[in-house]
Each structure stands twice: as C-alpha cells, then as structure tokens.
Amino acid sequence: MIKAEDLITKCNPTWCPGCGNFGIWGAFKNAAVKKGWDNTNSVIVAGIGCHGNFINFIKLTSFEGLHGRAIPVATGVKIANHKLNVFVFSGDGDSLGEGGNHLLHSARRNHDLTVMIHDNELYSLTTGQTSPASPHGLKTKSTPFGNPDYPINPVTLAIAAGATFVARGYAGDIPKLTELIIKANQHKGFSIIDILQPCVTFNKDFNHQFFLENTYQLENHDPTNKEEAFKKSLEWGLKQIPLGIFYQEEKPSYEETLPQIKEKPLIEISNIRKNLDDLFRKFI
Amino acid sequence: MDQVFKVKIGGQAGQGVKYSGLILGKLATRSGYNIYNYVEYPSLIRGGHNVVQVSISKTPVYGPSKKTDLLIALNQETVEKHLEELDENSYILFDEKNKINATNKQLFPIPLSELAADAGGEILTNTVALGATVALLGGDIDLFKSLIDEEFVDKNPKVMENNKNAAQLGYNYCLKSFKNKIKNILAKQDNFQSKIIVDGTEAVAMGAIAAGLQFAAIYPMSPISNILQVLALYQEKYGYIYKQPEDEISAINMSIGASYAGARSMTATSGGGFCLMSEGLGLSAMTETPLVVFEGMRPGPATGLPTWSGQGDLQFVLNAHQGNFPRIVLAAGDAKEAFELTMDAFNLADKYQTPVVVLVDKNICEHNQSFQLFDISHYEVSRGKFTKEIVENYERYKNEPDGISNRTAPGTGNFFITNSYEHDSFGFNTEKIEEINEQMEKRMSKLKAIANNMPDPLLFGPEEADITIISWGSNKGSILEALKLFNNVNFIHLTWLSPFPTRKIKEKLEQSRHVIDIECNYSGQLAGLIREKTGIEIIDKLLKFDGRPFFKEEIVDKINSVLKRS
C-alpha cells in the first residue's frame, strides 16, 4: 500500500495561499492512499489552468495536455489500457469553455473516466477573466461592467449529456470530497464531480465563507431518479447549494462494450500481423 | 497507336458510375491487364455528373488521360460533356432512346433502359451497358457473371439473377448488332499473376493494419473517409480499435492519449480537419508521443472543392503549429507508395517519438489502380526505445545524443510526467534557462538523426537528361505516363519533405540542364521549399489548381514546348 509521503515530489505547490486547489489536492491524495492508487494502476490527465499544475505536486504518472483537451487524451488512454484508473483534472474554463464539446460527447459515450472540474467560476491562471461558470453580473477583468452572460450549470449539463455519475463537491470539505472521489472512481462509466473551489485572489464573491454558509449535503435524495436529479441540479441560491451525488446510473461503460478488449487490455494484445494475404485478396 | 485503351463511363450520381468502373477494372485485371481508374464527381449524393475513366493496358498504367477510346453514356449529358475527348475512331455506346449529336464518331446505339426494364428494372441500365461493353471489347461474359455473383453474394438472390440477366441481354444485343466492330481489348491473356485493385484509402488502411495499428480515431472528411470505413470494418478481425470522435481535435488528442498509453495510434483528415489538429501536432512533438497523421489533400481554402484534388497543404503541414519542433512529413505518389509509407510512418513515429504526417492527395485517395498483391514479409514492427520494465530513477526526457529518450507507459510502475509545458528530464514544469535549452536541443537533434537515415529521392528515367522534372504526390502517375514517350527527360519524385534531402536535391538540380517543377497548387509550394533549403530557384513551373489532376497530355505538351525552345 502507498503512504501519503510516497506521493510527495520535489515541487512545492505554487497555488495562492488559501486556494481551493489545496483542498482538492489533499482529498485526492487521501483517496489515493485509501484505495492504493499508484503508478502500477493509475494515471492522471490534466488540462491547462491553475489546476493543471497539480501534476507537479503528486508522484502519480500523469499527462498534462492542452487547454480543454484533457478528456480526449484520457479517453485514448482508457481505451488503450482499460485496467488503469484514469483521473481527469480539469477546470471550468478547460472543460466547460474550451473543451465543452469533449465533455458532452465523452459523457454521452460513457467512457469509464473520473473527471474532476476545479470550478472556481473564473479564469484565474490568466489573472481573472470571466468563465463559462461565472455568475451573471460578475465584475472581472474581461467584464469590468458586469458579466453580460449567464453561467453554465455543469451538473445539469452533465446529467443531460448522459453522464452516469454526477456529483458536486466542495474543496473546503476534504473528508467529504475524498469520499466523493472514491465513489466516482468506483463507478463504472463516465463520472464527473463539479468541485466548488474558491479563487481567493480574483473571485471575492465565492470565498470559503460563502460556500460554508450556502452549501448543504444532499440527503433523502434518490440518485437513480433522473427527474429528481435534474430538479436538484437546478437548485442554486443562498443556503441552497446542494452537494453530493445528484445522479447515478448503472450502464455498461464504453470500454466494457468493446469485444476486442474483453479478454485483456489493447496494449497487451499482440499487434504483429505477419500475413495479411486474406485481406489483400479481397481486392483481387 | 497508344497502348492504353481508355473507357469512360458517365452518368448521374446514383447510376452506379464508380461501381461500374471498378467492375470493368476487375474484368480487365482478371483477364491479365493493368488498370488505372480516374473518377470525377461533385459533392452530391444524387444528381450531378459522375464519370470514371478506366485505362486498360498490358503494361502498368499510372495515370489519367484526356483522350477517350470508348465512351459509355448512361445519359445524354455524358456525350455532350465529353465529345471533345473523342476522335473519329472513338466509340460511343449509348441508350438508343437518347438523341446523340456526334458526327464523325463510331456510334453504338443500344436499347439500354429497355433491356434493363426487361431484366428487372431501369436500375440495371449500367449492368446492361457493361454487358454490351464486354461484348464490344472481346471480353468474357462468364467472368462478368462470376463478378456479379461475388458482388451480390450477401444480397437478395433475385437482385443477383436480374443483374446477370441484364449483363447477358446487353452482351447478346451488342454481339448481334455490331459483330464487325468487336475489339480485342479484354481478351484473356495467358499466364498472368493476380492483381489487386485498390485506392489510396484502402492502401493506407491496409498499411496501418500491417504495421500493427492498435488505435485509430478519425473524424469523417472527404477524401479520407474510406480509410476509417475500412478500418472500422476489420477492427474485430485484427484486434485493433477504431473510434469515431466528436471532432478532429478530439481525434488527434485521443490518438495521442492511446499512444502515450502504449498503443500504436493514428488519425487521418483533410486540410480543414488538419487546421483543427494543428495544436495536437505540437502536443505530440512536445510530449514526444509517437503519432501518425494522414492528410488527404483537396483544394482549399475553407470548404474549397470537397470532392476534387489539390496539393496546396504542403507548406501548411510543414509549418503548422507554433514554435519549433521536429516533424517527419512524407508524401505518397500512388496507392502502393501510400501503403509502404504508412508502414514506415509507424516505425518512424515510434523510433523518433515525434509526429509523422503522411500526405496523400485526393487523386491517390479515390482512384483505383492495379498492383501485384501487396507483400509485407520484409516488414518488422519496431517500437524503438520503449520499455515496460521498472527503471530506477527513471527520466522520461533524459538527454541522449540522438535526442531520443527511453519511453515507457503508464501502469508499468514507473513515475514520469508527460508534459506539454516545457519540462526537465523527469517531466516536471521548468522555466530554468539551462533546462529549457537542453530540452529544445534534445528534441531538435532528432531531425539530424532522421536525416542521416532517410532514403534518397527517387529518380525515374535516364541519369542524364535534357529536362529534369521535379514533383511530388499523385503527379507521379501522369509524369510517368509522359516519360514513356521521351528518352531525354528524367523525373525526381520526392516522398520525404521533412527532413528535406537537401544535399541530394541540390546536387541533382545543379547538374540539370532544364528543371520543371510540377505541382497542383497556386504558388509552387515545393519549389518554395526547394529554394528555402537549397537556394535554387526553379523558374519553369507547371502549376494547376482547378482540382483536376495533371493529365498525361499536359505534361507531354509542356515537355515538347521546352524541347522546341532549346
């Protein structure tokens, strides 16, 4: 079993003091230690944004791709070696803006990925412009007179797109987030956690105090009821931000439906094809 | 007389024109001949004018021609559109109900649609016409019928029977009515080897399977869609996976992800899709993840001419993406070359851990050509420096003299970071000057290693010549056809464009008396590359950008005009 210190790298986190990323980092490491996620069974794919720096601070094999493109890279990894736990770290700008299309289609196809959206409702690495998750009216560097656009609701969107595990977590509650990440990974199919994460530097509205006061844990909610899940996902307001699993559906993952990899992962199947005359002869 | 007999079949989209061309091609190859099929069609599923030219010859035939010896007109429009390709000896086979205004030609009116109706419906018109053609060209009607058996084996038996009847009715009518005009074009040869008929998309797909392809993500786009269709069909049989992604951005990123995880991976697209893939191309190079990309060229910019051919993407593919990184760019001249280069591309990508782009133009993608059965006995899958073992203190981007570090896969137990950010030898982000310099130089040094191991450009024709043609891509076919007529013209055919064979090309061009650059683009992009690399400016260019290929005659005329001047 791995220990927390096994996950330490030579790099210290470069996030701002108080950044929500610390909570997500902590929760993920806790989950990794609890479940034994290590370099023999797990891989991380990250996008670009403050979250992307994550890969430098955890000793788990990773691929940091391009802005918005973490999900398709992770999809390729999972198809090539479905034995691996494939974790996607992404942000609201990364997967709701630049890579929105990939999120929709990956959810629809039910690839067995665990996607965590570091949702700070802002573009913070580029020092504070509006994001697809920023509230209407928010004053940012790109919307000095208030955001004219209305935000995407990632939870509603994910349920509608066909994700089979849809949850919301809060970066400030590490034990609960740890539990959510483990459950998301245990789920066979496309799992997504929208993680509310304060940006203490550029987003003064959504700070820890706001989330502590206004979130609550979903209770007596049946996550297999899609209609109820939609209803709950639409809830957002003072004292009215639900956390927990909104929706979960048992359904074969994309990788489980592929006959080619029923027996073993793609990369373990011999690809030496010495004689193809039967194929060539089809063209005589 | 020209030893290549050219049959052109024309009709509306939906009348089975391309299919008829393939059947006629198979009739020819199975009787011992070589063929080259050239297809023209607009971007429509029904309606619009479709034609296929089937060139038949005892010796290999490489490209299309402007002349037609037999025109099979499935509708009236075909005769009007192609009259100028015919001379007084040319045959026109047409439906007698159509009014043909063609003087000074050999006319063969046949009640095509009437006979088709007798056999089961007007949809059989093309089969009647092919039956008549078999008679007219001295072919074997039983061979045609056995081809119908093969083609319709999975269909309704009634459809098969109707087709065979239609073929026989056309054959009988023609034989009876035009007994004195029968030619000896399809008479069965003695002792010949079986040939395959493939287009470039089939050749690429088969090359990829032969090379041990494990994963392909391809978004449909003309002219490469058939690559994915062939790959999709055989994936379970050969144990690889084809995935249709949501867009080309996803296609290239999925392929990179699968390759990173250890699977031989590819994607394919046309110029427009390659625009979207450009960011992924650099990701492959920066992360040093092997990747093979096929780019099937059609004329641009924007939507351009979706169903026509072009060679305007060369400079784009050579320069796409920001910054500097090593890339290998290959270009095929025909389907056979596409097959061989595909197999090479996978080994090169693995060996040098960098993207390999294979350019094919639409003329190669969609035009059928006959070849000897492909042979892969010489091919070895080589994964390069790739290990699944645990390596102590593993450095993914360790600086090595040839620029190539040991690669491994996630799940092996090794810790490593594969990073699009500039990184140190372990993969951690870096902004330190010495590490930045080391990694850039490490990556770029691969180019030298590649250049030291690349093959020489191909030279066709005599070592010394009055005219040297330099070209690339599908122009090869028509240039080779033209070369059959001259003994003082040679031809340098480039299949490696990055790295560029600078020294060899410079040497050759400096020795040449007169150089002609031939390309299907507006600006002479290869000539520009040659000037950039060698300093030699080629003044005489034969360029074309109307979506059509070069025809043999255009090249012959060009050569003659230069010879006349000198």
Short description:
The complex is a heterodimer of chains A (284) and B (566). Chain A is of the alpha/beta class and 284 residues long.
Helix and strand layout, with pairings?
The complex is a heterodimer of chains A (284) and B (566).
Chain A (H helix, E strand, L loop, with lengths): L19 H16 L6 E5 L15 E3 L5 H11 L4 E7 H7 L1 H10 L4 E6 L34 H8 L3 E6 L3 H13 L4 E6 L11 H7 E3 L8 H8 L7 E8 L28 H4 L4
Parallel strand pairs in A: 1-2, 1-3, 3-4, 4-6, 5-6, 7-8
Antiparallel strand pairs in A: 5-8
Helix pairs in contact in A: 1-6, 3-4, 5-8
Chain B lengths: L4 E8 L4 H13 L4 E7 L8 E9 L12 E4 L2 H7 L8 E5 L10 E5 L1 H8 L5 H12 L4 H11 L5 H21 L17 E4 L1 H11 L4 E3 L7 H14 L2 E3 L4 H13 L4 E6 H17 L3 E7 L16 H6 L8 E4 L3 H18 L2 E7 H5 L2 E4 L44 E3 L13 H20 L5 E3 L6 E6 L2 H9 L5 E6 L1 E3 L3 H10 L3 E5 L5 H10 L5 E4 L8 H14 L1
Parallel strand pairs in B: 1-4, 4-5, 5-6, 8-9, 8-10, 10-11, 11-13, 12-13, 17-18, 17-20, 20-21
Antiparallel strand pairs in B: 1-3, 2-3, 7-14, 12-19, 16-18
Helix pairs in contact in B: 3-4, 3-6, 4-6, 5-6, 7-8, 7-12, 9-10, 15-18
The biggest sheet of chain A amounts to: 8 strands, mixed
CATH topology of the largest domain in chain B: Pyruvate-ferredoxin Oxidoreductase, domain 3
| Major protein interface | A-B, 60 and 68 residues
The coarse silhouette of chain B is: globular
Average pLDDT of chain A works out at 96
**Classification by helices and strands of chain B:** alpha/beta
Instruction: Give the overall pLDDT of chain B as a whole number.
Output: 96
Biggest sheet: strand arrangement of chain A: 2-1-3-4-6-5-8-7
The stretches of 5 or more residues of chain B where confidence is low (pLDDT under 50) are none
| Annotation field: number of helices of chain A | 9
**Helix/sheet category of chain A:** alpha/beta
